Amino acid sequence: MAKKKHEEVVLVEEQIVEQTNTEKNKKQKIKISKKTKKSIKVKKQKEKKNFKLAIKEFPIKIVKELNKIKWSGWDNLKKKYIIVLLFMIFFAILFFCIGLGIEALFRLINVY
Predict the structure, then answer these.
(1) Fewer CB within 10 Å of terminal CB in the chain, N or C?
(2) Per the structure, how many domains does the chain have?
């Protein structure tokens, strides 16, 4: 128990030191003119990809993505299925009537 308290105190002290160091660094910024900024070319270094780690983490990433998907419940699927069937029946009747109308029009003008 005493070790945990001592470790927590040490961690808090390290955080305070880090905060003071970052505050000092913020104050000591170097001013560079616009001309020198334009002339300086900085190449970004690419970080090497750790393929072994990526292969190990791949299944975990897949599981996280699958957990994001919201799967439909049975009641929701029933409602959607009924709605789709009703639309299919409605449009089947609509196109059948349109076909009958076009057929009657062609008979009227003696094309059929």
Answers:
(1) N
(2) 1
What are the tokens at 110?
């003696």
C-alpha distances (whole Å) from 3 to each of 8, 12, 13, 73, 83 are: 9, 14, 15, 51, 66
Question: Got the DSSP string for 18-80?
Answer: HHHHHHHHHHTPPP--HHHHHH---PPPPPPP-HHHHHHHHHHHHHHHHHHS-PPPHHHHHHH
In a domain, 77, yes or no: yes
CA distance readout (Å), 96 to 84, 88, 91:
18, 12, 8
d(Cα 8, Cα 5) in Å, to the nearest integer?
A: 5
* Full residue range of the structural domain in which residue 102 is found: 72-111
pLDDT digits (tens, 9 = 90+) for 27-77: 566 777 777 777 777 777 777 788 888 888 888 888 888 888 777 777 888
Residue 51 lies in a domain: no
Q: Is the pTM value of this prediction over 0.85?
A: no
